[in-house]
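Predict the 3D structure for this chain.
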Amino acid sequence: MNTNHVVATIIVAGFCGAPAFAQSADDQPFSHAVSTDLFASTDADNTEVYRAGVNLDFKYLGEEQLLGVRYEQAWYKPLGQRARTRERGFLRYADKGKDWAWTSQIGTDGHTVLGAASIHNNARFRQEYFVERDIVETPRGVDEGIYYTFVGAALDLPIDKNNGFTLVGGVQEFTGKNVRLHARGTYTHSIKSDWGLSFQLRSRYYHSTHPREFDYYSPRYYLQILPVVQMRRYSGGWRYLLAAGIGGQRDAVTDWTQSRFATAEITSPANRRGWFIKAAAQYSNTPLRTGIYDYGQLMLGVGKRF
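Done. Predicted structure below.
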């Protein structure tokens, strides 16, 4: 299992702790919510991960303002082996003030503290600070309790209404001795704002202090340059996202190879009865000595405000 896919999601798209199902709908006369979701992933090593969760939000005014709890059952099947089961519980909290908004999902799997938290402002030069801690989804990671903690920050640097940069830096510490230093930059150009169509040039680099310490993918360094075309649309409260890119990547033991990425998302608003849904799918790959390592994931969720 490749831990890079988890981190990549966080620092490209912004912090995304608990699954976010619905857009804010303050005009709806609801203040509570219950939702359930299923996450599944698979990769070229026949590693499968499944997570089923239930969220009970005592206060729910949208994903930016909520207070509740989450129970999650996780099944890990690394390298096609037997399933390892873990139960996880979290406290969910999100709120916003005049200048800053924050969100968190903090809990435990019965062995250590897990979860994620972030805070960001809405200034022109937007700042975001985030932290995440989770298990490494490999045979040794699950059996021996190998975890990572990732701490980072992001800064938006707009040039004009159609162009801008996002810079991200972070430190990822693993159980053991390995520490990764992350740097990421994204240039975004709006092609047609009415369509939500944009071009992004994404680049990322990390360096590991103790490469290949355990059984997760961890070369001395990794570099990726990925041009991406993205379309983000809103219609009647629905949100649609499509993105795809082909670029190049290499690490300390492999030469340049093709890098591929694709994602699709659809999110509904709460209807008159309070129901809302979300679905998302993503594909990416990583170079290995034996060839390209493919990774795919799928998330489905449904909820009801009341």
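The first strand starts at residue 33 and ends at 43.
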